[in-house]
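Work Package 3 committed the consortium to producing structural models of liganded targets before the mid-term review. Because experimental data for this complex are still outstanding, the team generated a predictive model from sequence and the ligand definition alone, so that downstream docking and mutagenesis planning could proceed in parallel. The input record is reproduced below exactly as it was submitted to the modelling pipeline, together with the SMILES string for 2-acetamido-2-deoxy-beta-D-glucopyranose.
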Amino acid sequence: MSLKILVCGDVSGKLDALYGRVKRLQSKGNNFELLLCVGEFFGGKDEDQVLWKEYLEGRKKSPISTFILGPNDETTESYFDDSADDGAELCENITHLGKKGIFTGTSGLKIAYVSGTQSTGTSTKTSFSDDDIRGLASQLGVGGSEYHGVDILMTSSWPNGVSAFGNSPSSEKCKSCGSAAIAELAKSSKPRYHFAGLEGVNYERVPYRNHTVLAEPSRHVTRFIALSSVGNPNKEKYLYAFSITPMSLMTQQELNSQPPEATESPYTTGNQTKNIPVLVSGQVAEQYRWNMDTTRAPKRKSQNNPNQPERKHARPQDWSCWFCLGGDKVEKHLVASVGELCYVAMAKGGLTSDHALILPIAHHSSSNELPDDTRVEVLKYMEALRTAYKSVGRECVFFERNYRTDHMQIQVVPLPPGVTSSQVKESFVNLGTSNTDRHGNPNPIDFVELPQRTDLKQIIGRGIPFFHVELPDGTRLVHKIQRYFPLQFGREALCSAPLLNSPKRIDWRSCALSCDQETDLTKKFRKFFKKFDFSLDEE
Ligand SMILES: *[C@@H]1O[C@H](CO)[C@@H](O)[C@H](O)[C@H]1NC(C)=O
Ligand SMILES: *[C@@H]1O[C@H](CO)[C@@H](O)[C@H](O)[C@H]1NC(C)=O
Ligand SMILES: CC(=O)N[C@H]1CO[C@H](CO)[C@@H](O)[C@@H]1O
Ligand SMILES: [Zn+2]
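The resulting structure, written out as tokens with the ligand in place, is given here.
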């Protein structure tokens, strides 16, 4: 049973604007269960007081049951009278939740909440103390064997450090804003959704895990969403609509399914940066060449020579990244070829048995951010792979999605013999045209064709998300990602009938193989690619 919920950032007294918006959504047939407001609900100005009086006296009415936090500073304390700590119904359909607590809806949805900002000492009407947070944690029963998490955590303040390992918030100040105690609470209480306000910034972090991969059984992920304020001048999102089934009604499997883009928890304990040697890319490559084929002596004598000056572009590895070749998580058995600065791996759940990836060894987010030497090697691998597939009568497509990923991957997918570039183009363009957003509204993905010899960087600025595809005839199409972009888009286009004709393979998870099968594919691929693999050349 799924419930539709609305969450709003700071209302700051703009009740008419908020409820006007809610009524329009309701009039389109959306039946929302409740509206949760984080941050500051009331405004400090005289006119805000006047408007509120209309609601208090019943001349205006809230069209939805609304649950609010507050106060967060002195200017709005007076609205709450004696309810600041324990909460109260302020008027019909507007309820103040109070300073902190747990609220369970009739539907079984469990919501924990904390209002205010972090106090430097004892708690006040507008701030919470460490004791408040500990009190809430024990009320929830966190740490106990029966505790599995809450559906929603509402806090006015951001948790400090939430963007670590994730996408960056648009505002620089939000990389360090927020409360350490809220971060601690988010970590221990493991909400499925965590909402915050007060910063006037919309930030939707990619989901993060609440378990250590391989070392612990999987748990549900957390989605942290910060909302901007009602009527903000930048038109940033302040109202978030979503559907949720209370966790108490879900199977373990449903609850714990992991979105492919999930990251490490931003609140991991221990000092992640400690004991991590800074490696030089060439050294990592050498290590891997050893691991892959221990019968072969290393050939690049110069690299083992301690007198050799270090490479110019020494880049640290990110130990938590799945694709950093020097990191802890890279799946070694999928690695097929290792060059100086790039490597080739088999795609997990590939579209074909020889669907490969080209990746930089060091942590670079996209082909737009690569240093020149790395870019040159990427092109070398592209050419080598193109030639290899051609030798068996197949053309290939390269595509890259620089969105919700922070380590560049170029996907290389060989096509069945006879498929033409115009068929491939048509498939990508048609799928783009018919794209809809999460709510089913048209949201076409439009492509621009890159002129020959034009660098992607000239069209798409650094740091801007994009989707790029290169057809067999060298035509390159690029889409600048502005809003929601379907993560499986490239796979879906290639799975269409004239191309691979394999609609069941769109989701990589449905193509997942066992580790043994993957090892086998990698071996076969290495054998196939050997003749074309320049990384194996004797110097
Ligand atoms: C109060 O909220 C409920 C449930 O969200 C809604 O059905 C009802 O119409 C609201 N009351 C008013 C006066 O709009
Ligand atoms: C983590 O380690 C680094 C380097 O040793 C140090 O500078 C930093 O202060 C440490 N951070 C914490 C939270 O201990
Ligand atoms: C409470 C809890 O188990 N938190 C864990 C969430 O996941 C990270 C790993 O990503 C662990 O380090 C935390 O301890
Ligand atoms: Zn990486």
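Reviewers should note the following from the model. The chain has a mean pLDDT of 86. These observations will guide the Year 2 experiments.
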